[in-house]
Amino acid sequence: MNNKKHLAAFVGLGLVVLSACGSSGDGESAGGSRTVTLVSHNSWAVSKNVLAAFEKESGYKVKVLEDGDAGQAVNKAILTKDNPQGDVFFGVDNTLLSRALDNGLFQPYEAKGLEQIDAGFQLDKGEHRVTPVDYGDICVNYDKQYFEDRKLTPPASLDDLIRPEYKNLLVTENASTSSPGLGFLLGTAAQYGDDGWPDYWKKLKANGVKVVDGWEQAYNEEFSGSAGGKAAKADRPLVVSYASSPPAEVIYGDPKPTTAPTGVAEGTCFRQIEFAGLLSNAKNSEGGKALIDFLVSKKFQEDMPLNMFVYPVVEEASVPAEFTTYGPAAKDPQTMDPAKIAEYRDEWVKSWTSLVLK
C-alpha cells in the first residue's frame, strides 16, 4: 500500500536517515542506549536542523529504518513485535489502525502536548496506544488546462465521476496495494453504504476508470496535470491523489507557476489520519517516549507540511501559506470508524478486486 507521502518522491526530496552508532560504540552509555530507532514507511522526511535540535536537546541519536510502504511496514512490525526492529513506529493510518491495535503492536503512552490535538484525531483516546501526528485528504485531482481547453466543468463529486462526459478520464490506484486506492474505496463505501458501493464501482468501471498499482504511477505517469505526467504525455486528466498535491505542483514547479495547475474535487475526499506509537517490547522505551513527544511538538509539526505534504494535528502549529492558498484541507471529507474498517476492509477489497480488475 503506497503512502500519501510518496508526494516526496514527486518533489525529489531526500529522506533524512541518521546513522546511529553500533552497540559497541559510543551509542551506548552507562544510562542505557542513547540511540532511539524510528521504524516508518519509506516516505518519512524531516529537515536536518529540526532533527538535529531534537538530538541536541534530548541527548538521543535518531536512527530511521524504512520498511517499504505503509501496509508492508505495519505487517512487518506485527510479525516482529516480540523482538521489534525499533522503539517507535510512525505511519500507521486509520485504514490500518485496528489491525495494529488488535495485534498488540503498541504499548500505552500519553504524549506530552496531547491536549493540543483535537479530540477528533485521537482515535485511541482512552488507551493512548497511538498518538496522532498528521492528517491529509485523499481526493480526486483534476488538470485545469484540460477542462479549460474543452470548456468542460471539472467533476465536483463522486456522483459526477460516473457521468458520460467524464468517460475514460479517471485513473486510480489499486485498493489492495495502495493507500490512496484503499482510501478512495473507503470513501465510496462511506458515501454509498455497505450495499451501494459495489454498484457505484460497476458504473465507474463502465465509465472507463483505469486502475494502476500505486500513486507514483497514477500521478506521475498517467495524470496529465502533474509535472511528471506532462513529461510522459499522460492522457488522464483526473487522478486519485491528495488535497495537498496542488501546492506541491506550485512549490516545486520549474518554472514556478503563479497558480496551481491542478485542482481538487472536494466532494470526493476521504480523511486519512496518521499515527505514531511506542512499540511493545521496545528496547529504549524512554527514548521512544521522547521521540513521540518530539513528533507532536510545534517545531516538528510546523516543519512537517513542506517535507511530507500533510497537515499538522497540533492546533497551534501554523500551516504554510502555499497550503492555505493552493491545497486547503477538505471542509467535509468522508470518514469511517476504524472498527468498521477493520471489520469490512478485507472483504471489501476482495469484492472490489472481483468487480473492477476481473
Plain-language structure description:
There is one protein chain. This protein has 358 residues and is of the alpha/beta class. The chain is 37% helix and 19% strand. Strands 3, 4, 5, 6, 7, 8, 9, 10, 11 and 12 form a ten-stranded mixed β-sheet that branches. The radius of gyration is 20 Å and the shape is globular. The two termini are 20 Å apart. Mean pLDDT is 90; it is low at 1-31.
Tally of contiguous helical segments:
14
Biggest beta sheet summary: 10 strands, mixed
Oligomeric state of the chains? single chain
Beta strands, count: 12
Give the end-to-end Cα distance, rounded to a whole number of Å. 20 Å
* Class from secondary-structure proportions: alpha/beta
Mean pLDDT: 90
**Poorly predicted ranges (pLDDT <50, ≥5 residues)?**
1-31
Helix content: 25-40%
Write the SSE topology.
Blueprint: H1 7-11, E1 28-29, E2 32-33, E3 35-40, H2 48-58, E4 61-66, H3 70-79, E5 88-93, H4 97-102, E6 106-107, E7 131-143, H5 144-149, E8 170-173, H6 179-206, E9 210-212, H7 215-222, H8 227-231, E10 238-242, H9 245-251, E11 262-279, H10 285-295, H11 298-303, H12 305-308, E12 311-312, H13 321-326, H14 338-357
Parallel strand pairs: 3-4, 3-5, 8-9, 8-10
Antiparallel strand pairs: 1-2, 5-11, 6-11, 7-10, 7-11, 7-12
